[in-house]
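Morning - phosphoenolpyruvate inputs below, output right after.
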Amino acid sequence: MRELRGAGVFGGVVIGPVYFYAPGRCTVSEEKTEDPAGEVTRFEIARGRAQAQLKALYEQALAQAGEESAAIFDIHQLMLDDQDYIDSVHGLITRGRDNAARAVQKTGARFARTFAEMDDEYMKARSADVLDVSQRVIDILCGAEGETPGLSVPSIIVAEDLTPSQSMQFERDKVLAFATAKGSSCSHTAILARTKGVPAVVGLGRALTPDLHGKTAVLDGENGTLTVDPDEKTLAAAQKRLQKQQKDHAALQALKGTPDRTKDGRTVKLYANVGNLEELQDALEQDAAGVGLFRTEFLYLQAADYPTEEEQLAIYRRAAEMCGDRKIIFRTLDIGADKTAPYFDLPAEENPAMGLRAIRLCLSRPGLFQTQLRALLRASAYGNVSVMFPMISSAREVEKALEQLETAKESLRKEGLAFDEKLETGIMVETPAAALIAEELAGLVDFFSVGTNDLAQYACALDRQNQTIQQFSDPHHPAVLRLIDMAARAAHAKGKWIGICGELGADTELTETFLKMGIDELSVSAPKVLPLRGKIQSLDLSR
Ligand code: PEP
Ligand code: MG
């Protein structure tokens, strides 16, 4: 028995055979060419073929895993259309006399280095993409196009690393789990595993060798372990957990359609947090009663340029329609700090978490804000839409944001475009300042939603991104709980409702505390909806 340790990316235990995936790749020759024009043509043909493959992969990913997963193949196509990339390959062939495969290899490596040196984590991750897409062209040039590995039985896919194209080629029902030597929780394996709901462990290191192929293993996506050739005791323990997992899952499914009501009859709005339409679909499948937080910035983060009003409307409208009568709260753009896209061209800041982000950015760029507000308002004609503003720290900001909303409404009225005149507006309470002046703010809007992730970071001066200081973090810090209580009292004093959409809202150890504070709504990620429903139903607040 051998236990390998890595980082768990997506929870759950699986038992099954290892499929060691080692795609055969051709060796690129360094031989110079005598026929540069012919090599340029060969490159162009291979590039066209790679584009066709990527288009097919995009369609496949779209059908199997949704738009977010598929988007990566769109990015790959864009990379192959990039003029700098093409010029570099052509130049190496015509001026340097490199053969086509060598020119692509050199170009891919150069672009990958440039991406890797960027500060932005998202751009850094594109380094692997440019290598992946270059390798695809090289494989075509060498006649070694990858074959789809045929899996006869559901297996744990083990690999050095998995590119998006590689992960996508496995049939979903043949994949028990993913385990890779490299990778981090931001890696493609991680992203795809989460969207596909497949347990995964990354960063297992050099111990992942081809001799593991065919061996039985236990993968624990929660603890981040892969145990090869498990002894009877380990196997029995894993089987027990597997059975419990299946039983828990079945018990949770039975809660679908049941009310979010405590034993003593207090009803809570149990909503979900989502970032795109696929997550919204998951939330609805988990029977969430609405959407308490739609993080619209993800739309911007995935785009290569500012999404237009029509592009945004298409997504918001679809989301509103999917929710039907259920409420859907769209949070306006919360960009800045850890969430940036290059086209925003944000200034470098000493303290970006306290810098030009969220509502501050929107108020500083009214054009950007108007585009989004108009799209959100127009979507409100198709469902039960509310709008909420992030990172509020003063009444002036709320007034300014509402003025902008009014301007957007006025422009739509002039153009005869429909929207919900009774659309509710709310703010995130995620700065201590907002909690402290909650009474004043409650007079300006219809509801509050507490963002405990940021509220805790600002109240305790503890950077939420910094892993190394997490030992100093107390998720149940009394300061944070008191600020939430203050906001709840202030909201209710003005007859407004209050919810929690930060991670703490899903913490079942605090559900009773929150309900006793009078919290009216809890908005959590889709997999947490049913466990939280179970908790709510078990409580008797009269005791
Ligand atoms: C929060 O801060 O708690 C929140 C819900 O917003 P985000 O995590 O997107 O900053
Ligand atoms: Mg926040």
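Note: The chain has a mean pLDDT of 90.

O.
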